[in-house]
Specification:
Helix content is about 35%, strand content about 25%. It is of the alpha+beta class. It folds into three domains: about 15-70, no CATH class; about 100-195, PDZ domain (Pdz3 Domain); about 200-400, Alpha-Beta Complex (2-enoyl-CoA Hydratase, Chain A, domain 1). Strands 2, 3, 4, 5, 6, 7 and 8 form a seven-stranded antiparallel β-sheet that branches. Helix 8 runs parallel beside helix 9. One of its GO terms (molecular function) is serine-type peptidase activity.
Length: about 400
């Protein structure tokens, strides 16, 4: 005797199967009818529909002729990813439901996982380590800046989005993740145990008796607290000017960047963001100036995102001299949208940041007040001298002596 519950289940399965078969038959005969001219569509409608048919044709060609079997889900996700990638703005991306579940919303904007900072390597399209923080899982595993992350738990990272890689590396304390690395010519598999670490992202030093140095790894959730402590240290050291080093800083959290900028600015607009057909969102300083002495900010081509917003805001308001290279020009507001039918996620650029002057940074970047050429930077490295740092100190010395 079949139970009522089991009968309902069987009927549901039969119904779903019937819908699938009907859809396939409808697709086949619709396509044939269009091709034979039995169904007439306007030009735009016809071209749009044929693109979907072409996608199905390509899938069939791959399935029947490719050198090895390809998982259907892989082809479908590749197609979906291609739709978003075609926007070609450097931000927008497609994430599977699994990848998005790994995201830590509290780490949004952060480029750090397991104590290492990542970016995509331009030469290989793998994940490249740009910085390793002390007393972290990455540090304990002897990973160093320049190493490539080739795979994460068996998933190849070539062409993987940075945020996808970071999401897969992060996780619950005590759980393990296996990564394959390449250091020089040597490849190895490493098993890392995840653990929560309060990582320092703001670093201080004194260049000489009058000039302080602050390096910001990224504008993360702890940046403002660490930066305020750094400024207090500068005051205790009797510094008369500071150098803020943003070379290689990939960005981070806009709220943190604006809070740090507030330490230098009198009341007024720091920046705004504007999207399509939306009202502007403004970030303003509150006239709570913590540092009113001279500032030089060093930037390079890898300075990006909200790090650019911070530096440009101080430049725009005449509070800092910018020294170095033209910055990346990648500062935009992104938003996540869930696909209702699947749970997958799409990240899209929904707004761009603007300075009080009306200038925008996306695709432009910051033009330094004083440029340092790539040749000069390379020469300085060869001589083990930091040309940019020496020049920044000279600028501050001149400003201090004049003021």
């Amino acid at each position: 005797m079949i139970s009522k519950k089991k009968m309902y289940y069987i009927l549901l399965v039969v119904l779903v199967a019937a819908i699938v078969v009907a859809s396939l038959v409808t697709f086949y005969f619709t396509k044939k009818s269009i091709e034979s001219g039995e169904i007439y569509l306007k030009g735009e409608e016809y071209n749009a529909l044929m693109k979907y048919f072409e996608l199905e044709d390509i899938r069939n060609i791959i399935s029947e002729n490719y050198i090895r079997e390809v998982d259907e889900d892989t082809l479908v996700q590749g197609s979906l990813r291609g739709v978003v990638d075609s926007l070609d703005d450097g931000y927008s991306a497609f994430y599977s439901e699994e990848d998005y579940q790994n995201f830590d919303e509290n780490s949004e904007g952060s480029f750090i996982a397991l104590g290492m900072m990542l970016e995509r390597d331009a030469a290989t399209d793998y994940m490249r380590v740009t910085r390793v923080f002390a007393d972290t899982p990455a540090y304990d595993a002897n990973i160093v800046a320049g190493d490539l992350i080739l795979s994460i738990d068996g998933s190849d990272t070539q062409y993987m989005e940075v945020q996808t890689a970071l999401g897969r590396l992060r996780g619950i304390d005590g759980t393990k993740v296996t990564i394959r690395t390449r250091s020089g010519e040597k490849e190895m598999d490493l098993e890392l145990v995840r653990k929560s670490v309060d990582m320092q992202v703001v670093f201080t030093n004194m260049v000489n008796e009058e000039i302080g140095y602050i390096n910001v790894a990224e504008f993360s959730n702890s940046s403002i607290d660490e930066f305020q402590k750094a400024l207090e240290t500068m005051e205790d050291e009797k510094a008369k000017g500071i150098i803020i080093d943003l070379r290689g800083t990939p960005g981070g959290n806009i709220s943190q960047a604006c809070k740090v900028a507030d330490s230098f600015l009198e009341a007024g607009e720091i920046c705004s963001s504007m999207g399509r057909d939306k009202e502007a969102t403004n970030w303003n300083s509150t006239d709570s100036v913590s540092w009113d002495k001279p500032v030089v900010i060093i930037v390079d081509r890898e300075t990006a995102g909200v790090a650019e917003v911070f530096a440009a805001a101080l430049q725009d308001r005449g509070r800092a001299t910018i020294l170095g290279e033209q910055t990346f020009g990648k500062a935009a507001v992104t938003s996540y949208y869930q696909v209702p039918s699947t749970g997958d996620m799409v990240k899209l650029v929904t707004a761009e940041y603007y300075l009080p002057s009306g200038a925008k940074l996306t695709g432009v970047g910051i033009t330094p007040d004083e440029a340092i050429s790539e040749a000069d930077l390379e020469e300085g490295t060869a001589e083990n001298n930091d040309i940019a740092l020496l020049r920044a100190a000279k600028i501050l010395n001149d400003q201090i002596s004049q003021g």
